[in-house]
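Quick one, probably user error.
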């Protein structure tokens, strides 16, 4: 009988276990949400458990008796399982207001939120800050707490598109991830592979609204509080469940944090420009 294994994970207080008994899937499971690895947990019980198994050539992820995804190869299985876990984590973290944003933290405890829709340049700008020593808390889902307006890391892998990966080839060169994390158009990279540290929380300090345009010289313009609040509301994942409290938290965020709209082509130039505005 195969020996059972278990990988324990925690994201902003949400604890979950990945378990199984297929020895060929243990390393695979260990690569899922690797940045969320936590010390051995004896009690209390995890908030959820997810089983990885193989049967009749199918790789399967199940939880509470429900099949979340199936695939025939590890590359497709990783993509599906990673997204199934992400949905589960997001659904369980209503204690945080969630924004479609990247977030970078600095050694002095400050955090800058990079808020915008897909393809706005969030990940490339976050990587540019990482080259200067910042830790990437997330490149997609920012968790803002109340009270305090702290940002907690969403310990999911970064999804780095091929063009962005080529631009930051030197930064990514030391990163060694298993083959099932690499696709034709993008690759998954654990944020802890880029920085040796990830704070448990950081203080929100700046709002950046990026817009990536080919051939565009970097332009950074201040955004007023009303406009910044409107942009944040448009990029909130769970504002409906927060109701009036979410609107109030958004108002507090724009009152505390200066905001800039940054149009750019070169993310390094954009990062340098923003850093001069908020040293």
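Nope, works fine. Designed sequence:
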């Amino acid at each position: 009988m195969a020996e059972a294994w278990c990988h324990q994970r925690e994201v902003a207080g949400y604890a979950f276990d990945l378990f199984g008994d297929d020895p060929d899937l243990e390393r695979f499971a260990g690569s899922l949400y690797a940045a969320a690895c936590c010390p051995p947990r004896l009690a209390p019980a995890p908030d959820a458990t997810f089983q990885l198994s193989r049967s009749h050539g199918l790789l399967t992820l199940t939880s509470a008796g429900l099949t979340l995804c199936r695939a025939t190869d590890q590359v497709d299985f990783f993509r599906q399982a990673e997204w199934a876990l992400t949905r589960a984590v997001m659904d369980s973290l209503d204690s945080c207001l969630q924004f479609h944003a990247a977030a970078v933290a600095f050694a002095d405890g400050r955090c800058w939120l990079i808020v915008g829709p897909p393809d706005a340049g969030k990940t490339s700008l976050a990587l540019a800050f990482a080259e200067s020593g910042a830790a990437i808390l997330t490149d997609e889902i920012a968790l803002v707490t109340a009270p305090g307006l702290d940002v907690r890391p969403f310990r999911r892998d970064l999804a780095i598109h091929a063009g962005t990966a080529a631009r930051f080839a030197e930064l990514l060169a030391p990163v060694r991830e298993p083959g099932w994390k690499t696709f034709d158009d993008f690759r998954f990279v654990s944020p802890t592979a880029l920085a040796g540290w990830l704070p448990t929380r950081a203080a929100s300090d700046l709002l950046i609204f990026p817009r990536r345009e080919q051939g565009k010289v970097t332009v950074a313009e201040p955004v007023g509080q009303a406009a910044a609040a409107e942009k944040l509301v448009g990029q909130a994942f769970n504002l409906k469940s927060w109701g009036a409290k979410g609107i109030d938290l958004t108002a507090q965020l724009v009152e505390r944090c200066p905001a800039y709209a940054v149009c750019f082509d070169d993310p390094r130039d954009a990062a340098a420009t923003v850093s001069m505005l908020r040293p």
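The chain is about 30% helix and 30% strand.
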